[in-house]
Amino acid sequence: MKSAVSSSLLFNSKNLFNPNPFSRFTLLKSSFFPKLTRRSITNHTLKLPSSSTSAIRSISSSMASSFNPEKARVPSALPLPAPPLTKFNIGLCQLSVTADKKRNISHAKNAIEEAASKGAKLVLLPEIWNSPYSNDSFPVYAEDIDAGGDASPSTTMLSEVSKRLKITIIGGSIPERVGDRLYNTCCVFGSDGELKAKHRKIHLFDIDIPGKITFMESKTLTAGETPTIVDTDVGRIGIGICYDIRFQELAMIYAARGAHLLCYPGAFNTTTGPLHWELLQRARATDNQLYVATCSPARDSGAGYTAWGHSTLVGPFGEVLATTEHEEDIIIAEIDYSILEQRRTSLPLNKQRRGDLYQLVDIQRLNSK
User: Fold this and answer.
1) Cα(232)–Cα(84) distance, rounded to whole angstroms?
2) For residue 162, how far is the Cα from the chain centroid?
3) Locate the CN hydrolase domain: which residues (predicted)?
4) What is the pLDDT of residue 59?
5) Buried b (16+ CB within 10 A) or exposed e, 137-171
6) CB 120 within 8 A of CB 331
7) 99: alpha, beta or left, given left = phi > 0 and alpha = psi -120 to 50?
8) Residue 99 and residue 233: Cα distance in Å, rounded?
9) Could you identify which of 16, 32, 89, 103 might form a hypothetical disulfide with 119, taking C-beta atoms 3.0 to 4.6 angstroms apart as the criterion?
10) pTM for this entry
């Protein structure tokens, strides 16, 4: 098995040393291309005979095959699965968070119920919605999710509400305690109230921007070790938490596993938020030709950590479909999965990747074979 490092960039020596990589086209007869006349040129557009157009498509297809696009993902990318439904509404609950944990849980419950009453079949909550966002607070507010019940009142509420309302909930994230370790964890509950998946934040938020912001999640939190993708009643969803969105490799793995939608509960700050929050969402959606949804806490200027807000839904062309400002809000927006195939047909990136030059290795899938 090739290592992730050694197999990340593979070069074809024949291409490197061929002085004229387009020499294969010199065999084409000039009669293939029609002669240009004034009539054949209208507004700088050349109209080719249908036979010529078909031949060009054939050449393009032949070139793509020689580039081995299927080898650009290791293992090979999975086909996009047929979703359980084509259209549905998502609710993004941008919530205010206080030091009162019971109030935060009740407040989130009310917001989920409101989103569902407005037609949401999928509800996304913010990062760290049951606790202030601080290293001092994480140990105090942490819950034993696996134990459930009184040991995890936040997830107990999510389970009850998802089952009662028959909706899917991406439960933002809460501090999770496992033995002597703490994680920043997102729980996904199905419409039956069952825990479908649990994502522990993979990339910890350790940054130092002099004069602006310094935060080190690693002082209290442990990094997760597993990408998380889950099949739900509203499609196949890849999960990341906040800082995870900066790492395109994770999103690419989810896309190669057949994700329809990526959900990132996140709490970007007022330093990096204006610069990167929307940019990263649109980049992840555009590069992978899928939907991206994010949900932030509402801004509290008096808090120790000030969230940027601006929860957003982005479409597979990188278009912002719905967003808000920094105050509390509930966004209801439509997701239409039929657009995914339209976009991928218009821009067939999966068929144009250069497997002869580079590869993305999904270590987890490779090792599970």
Assistant:
1) 8
2) 22
3) 88-337
4) 53
5) bbeebbbebeeeeeebbbbbbbbebbbebebbbbb
6) no
7) alpha
8) 34
9) 89
10) 0.83
pLDDT of residue 58: 56
Q: How far apart (Å, rounded) are the C-alpha atoms in residues 76 and 63?
A: 19
pLDDT given for residue 60 in this prediction: 54
**Residues of the chain scoring pLDDT < 50:** 1-46, 48, 56
Output phi, psi for 281, to 5 deg: -60, -45
CA distances from 104 to 100, 111, 114, 115, 168 (A): 6, 10, 15, 16, 20
Q: Which residues are catalytic?
A: 127, 201, 242
Q: Tokens standing for 20?
A: 């004229």
Question: Which residues in the chain belong to E strands, given as ranges?
Answer: 41-42, 45-46, 73-74, 87-94, 120-124, 168-170, 174-178, 181-189, 195-200, 206-209, 213-216, 228-232, 235-239, 261-265, 291-295, 312-314, 320-323, 329-336, 360-361
DSSP 8-state code for residue 277: I
Residues in CB range of 191: below 8 A, 6 or more apart: 162, 163, 166, 167, 168, 233
Amino acid 331: pLDDT: 98
What pLDDT is attached to residue 22?
Answer: 42
> Residues of 56-72 as b/e, b for ≥16 C-beta within 10 angstroms?
eeeeeeeeeeebbbebb
In residues, how long is the chain? 369
Q: Output the six-digit token pair for 325.
A: 């400002």
Rounded CA-CA distance 59/63 in Å is 6
pLDDT given at position 52: 54
Whole-angstrom CA distances from 228 to 50, 91, 198 are 47, 21, 7
Q: H-type helices in 67-198, by residue range?
A: 101-117, 137-141, 153-165
Give bridge partners of residue 361 from the DSSP assignment.
74
**Residues 244 and 267: beta-carbon distance below 8 Å:** no
